[in-house]
Amino acid sequence: MAPLFFASMGSAIPIGDLWKPTILWRGLVYAALMALGKALVGPVVVLLDALLCRTRAIAPPSPSSSPSPPPPLPAPTPDISTPATRSTDTPTTLSTVESQATATTSTTDYDALVDVRISAATLLGLGLIARGEIGIVIAQLAYAAGTTSSVVLLGEEPFLVAMWAIVLCTVVGPAAMAVVARRTWTKVSAPSSPWA
After folding, report:
1. Disulfide check for 130: which of 39, 71, 145, 173 has CB 3.0–4.6 Å away?
2. CA 155 → CA 119, 143, 178, distances in Å?
């Protein structure tokens, strides 16, 4: 049934009229604007997801849950260096070394998470660019309504411009997504990814 649907949609596009210069450049501009609008949705969705995850992580526990005891503090370790080798400027203890290691690890984790979120936003935005078959159906219905009644919903020139934009986005979107997916899919689908 799907091949029949796509064949009927493709046969309704007047190919000969698409090549008029004014329709061609307007279609290209409209396709670029359409692609930009769809591509911007990816970062917005991923940013909202990040903010919601952070809000859930920071939110105080609900009153119905019983308070858990605080984790035990690590036992202090004695400084066994001799006074001659000990620096008087900055004393180094186990807790200082652990906090430095934790800061390095959390920075690395944060950078990796940002990289994964950027990759996911790019994939989502490019995936949305290719979606255009419903736009073809709506444009065809609006154009056909003008031919069967006295009310013109969509004239011939806007119809052709919309066809250019939809066809270009439908062809370019999957190609761009395939290129980006080859490079970033392992990061987005890794077990440590928020979307795995």
Report:
1. 173
2. 40, 6, 35
Which of 176, 168, 181, 179 has its CA nearest to residue 34? 168
How far apart, in whole angstroms, are the C-alpha atoms of residue 51 and residue 66?
26
Nearest to 43 by CA among 105, 103, 126, 100: 126
Instruction: Give Cα 156 distance to the centre of its chain.
Output: 35
Task: Supply the pTM of this predicted model.
Answer: 0.61
Profile the chain (196 residues) by mean pLDDT over runs of 10 residues.
59 76 93 92 86 65 57 60 51 48 56 80 87 84 80 87 90 89 83 68
User: The tokens of 82 are what?
Assistant: 């001799």
